[in-house]
């Protein structure tokens, strides 16, 4: 009799334990694939309404999952990658301002724990393929010393798509070296177009992944960043030829670079499906900042009609593409709440079954995004004491103070949008894309109407700006205030109309300014010159 009761109790206990533990165990085993594009602008993905440059695989992630309509990042690569990895505003880690150059002994301080370190603690296998750019002067800054089991890719801002050289303009002349590494070793054996190379590496990691562990794969593509001066735009000729409908010859090459990036997203989705783990994988796609329509690293990307480009806190520099595909059983939707680059760390940790850390700026938005609930984020702060601006988004308004690069904070890229004849058919491209086919075959319907998403994301400017119109630029004590919901193109300064709101926002900024870790100046160390390292940009500071 006693044993009967013991049996019953055991049964009840095991039932309760099963019910309590299994969903969590299942949750904690979800794989995460984080794909980051480099300098991909608002108007460079077709989900935002243009048929000129088609990105059916990238768009499908959102159509079958969640399209982020108000995803914000930093306007420069090093700060946005530091924020992505740490979950902290870049100005609180000293990583704000001009991106890292090859001769600098600077990096995201190792005192900050980063996403792969958290995931490794949860048992994840962690791999970085592609760009790093948050420090490579010392071994301790390298990805394999900071939570990644492996790294294959470039450590600095960009490389040549075929030779993997990175070049800088020093006072002694041009300085150049190879910047492709496999873990700590120069990858002299690497061959092929960089986007293919990174794509193949990502697929081989997926194929050989040991499923007893969850997988974290960060695929930080070079594309569509420009390469070095003299050969800024590079894509396989046959792909460029397939873009003949693009009127601008430069943007035609850029479109081919984006096509290779989009194809890679399709290949990754297909590889996950073939491996049989797509149903347990979260895929995030983001751009690090806006497109670089003009200037030193011009790639002929377009953020039009948004104002500003990469390096500017105006919308074109910071409002970028974001999409999530998740195995959750949720209705696909367009998420209109604010999501910021710092939010990925807590959000993905939550998705992996861990409570997010407290000492960060990011918000855990996992359930809000998945269930289409109001975002807990209503404020986004960006401070750059090097360029000299501070900006804050608060609810519907954005305030910019200090000084910005005016030449990067105007309207650019409209002239790049011309099409010869008819553009390719978008719906056909979607239906023929690998990602769409895989998701559809999986039984994930598209309850959301594709054209309704595109229409909702098509930016209508409140006012058309003509060349001789005077628009607000911050500086000399002038601040600029915009209603970015009603006036997404930031045409109309409201600071005179709402002085109290300006004061309120300035107060928040002044409090935030106390948290700034001052940006140290960019100091070039001649000993970093690749001539001393067999023509590679390698670690040049030995720490004993
Ligand atoms: C380096 O790379 C290989 C695979 O490419 C991996 O197996 C190895 O563990 C990596 N990590 C380190 C720290 O060397
Ligand atoms: C490189 O330096 C030379 C001479 O100072 C200058 O003319 C040129 O514009 C610079 N190029 C870039 C990309 O900064
Ligand atoms: C995913 O699919 C595979 C086979 O197709 C199946 O064995 C596995 O249980 C599925 N996993 C989840 C989490 O649904
Ligand atoms: C600030 O004032 C100086 C001197 O009057 C002027 O040269 C400069 O263009 C002004 N800057 C801005 C951003 O208005
Ligand atoms: C030095 O560079 C060459 C390519 O220029 C490469 O073949 C060789 O293996 C490198 N040597 C070492 C020691 O890494």
TrEMBL record:
Signal sequence bounds: 1-18
Keyword ATP-binding set for record: no
SUPFAM superfamilies attached to this UniProt entry: Alkaline phosphatase-like
Xref: CDD domains: 4-S
Ranges where the Sulfatase N-terminal domain occurs: 30-353
Pfam families: Sulfatase
Keywords from the named record: Calcium, Glycoprotein, Hydrolase, Metal-binding, Signal
Cofactor: Ca(2+)
InterPro entries referenced in this protein's UniProt entry, alphabetically: Alkaline_phosphatase_core_sf (IPR017850), ARSB (IPR047115), Sulfatase_CS (IPR024607), Sulfatase_N (IPR000917)
Keyword Signal: yes
GO molecular function: metal ion binding; sulfuric ester hydrolase activity
PANTHER family linked: ARYLSULFATASE, MIP05773P-RELATED
Stated family: Belongs to the sulfatase family.
Protein name (database record): Sulfatase N-terminal domain-containing protein
Protein source organism: Diatraea saccharalis (sugarcane borer)
């Amino acid at each position: 009799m006693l044993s009967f009761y013991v049996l019953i109790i055991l049964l009840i206990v095991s039932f309760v334990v099963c019910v309590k533990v299994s969903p969590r165990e299942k949750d904690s085993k979800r794989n995460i694939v984080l794909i980051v594009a480099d300098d991909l602008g608002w108007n460079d993905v077709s989900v935002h309404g243009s048929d000129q440059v088609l990105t059916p695989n990238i768009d499908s992630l959102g159509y079958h999952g969640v399209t982020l309509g108000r995803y914000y990042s930093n306007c420069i690569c090093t700060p946005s990658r530091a924020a992505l990895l740490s979950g902290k505003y870049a100005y609180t880690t000293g990583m704000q301002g001009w991106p890292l150059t090859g001769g600098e002994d600077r990096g995201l301080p190792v005192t900050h724990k980063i996403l792969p370190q958290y995931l490794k603690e949860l048992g994840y296998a962690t791999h970085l393929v592609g760009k790093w750019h948050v420090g490579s002067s010392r071994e301790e800054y390298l990805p394999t010393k900071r939570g990644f089991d492996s790294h294959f890719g470039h450590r600095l801002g960009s490389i040549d798509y075929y030779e993997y050289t990175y070049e800088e303009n020093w006072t002694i002349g041009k300085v150049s070296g190879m910047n492709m590494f496999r873990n700590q070793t120069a990858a002299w054996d690497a061959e092929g177009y960089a986007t293919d190379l990174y794509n193949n590496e990502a697929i081989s990691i997926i194929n050989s992944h040991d499923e007893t562990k969850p997988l974290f794969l960060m695929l930080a593509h070079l594309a569509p960043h420009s390469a070095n001066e003299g050969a800024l735009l590079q894509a396989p000729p046959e792909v460029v030829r397939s873009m003949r409908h693009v009127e601008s010859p430069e943007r035609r090459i850029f479109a081919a670079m984006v096509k290779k990036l989009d194809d890679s997203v399709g290949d990754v989705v297909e590889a996950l499906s073939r491996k049989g783990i797509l149903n347990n994988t979260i895929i995030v796609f983001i751009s690090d900042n806006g497109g670089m329509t003009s200037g030193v690293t011009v790639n002929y990307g377009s953020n039009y009609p948004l104002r500003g480009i990469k390096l500017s806190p105006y919308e074109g520099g910071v409002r970028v593409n974001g999409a999530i595909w998740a195995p959750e059983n949720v209705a696909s939707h367009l998420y209109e709440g604010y999501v910021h680059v710092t939010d990925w760390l807590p959000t993905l940790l939550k998705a992996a079954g861990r409570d997010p850390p407290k000492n960060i700026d990011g918000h855990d938005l996992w359930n809000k995004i998945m269930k289409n609930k109001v975002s807990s984020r209503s404020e986004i702060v960006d401070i750059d004491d090097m360029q000299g601006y501070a900006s804050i988004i608060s609810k519907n308004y954005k305030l910019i103070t200090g000084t910005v690069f005016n030449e990067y904070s105007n309207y650019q890229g409209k002239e790049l949008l011309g099409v010869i004849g008819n553009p390719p058919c978008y719906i056909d491209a979607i239906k023929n894309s690998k990602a769409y086919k895989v998701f559809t075959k999986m039984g994930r319907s598209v309850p959301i109407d594709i054209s309704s998403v595109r229409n909702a994301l098509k930016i209508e400017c409140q006012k058309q700006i003509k060349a001789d119109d005077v628009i607000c630029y911050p500086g000399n004590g002038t601040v600029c205030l915009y209603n970015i919901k009603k006036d997404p193109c930031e045409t109309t300064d409201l600071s005179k109309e709402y002085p109290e709101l300006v004061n309120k926002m300035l107060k928040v900024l002044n409090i935030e300014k106390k948290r700034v870790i001052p940006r140290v100046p960019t100091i070039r160390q001649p000993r970093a010159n690749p001539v001393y390292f067999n023509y590679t940009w390698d670690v040049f500071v030995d720490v004993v």
